[in-house]
# Entry
Amino acid sequence: MTLFLITFAVIAIVIFIMAIGVIFGRQAIKGSCGGSEGAECVCTEKCDKRKKLEAAQSQQ
# Structure
């Protein structure tokens, strides 16, 4: 039971610390876009692999 309480307390503290970051308006964690600086991460067209996967799913 002691281990459970210690684990619960540690997780609660971590969640509390993350909440403080949100309260003070810190920016959200963002992906690196594959390491290319300044590149946009928004795809306007699906890649070939994704198109094939969706085509195969729609035929089933």
Notes: The helical segments are 2-23, 48-59. Residues 1-26 form one domain. The longest helix spans residues 2-23. The mean pLDDT is 78.
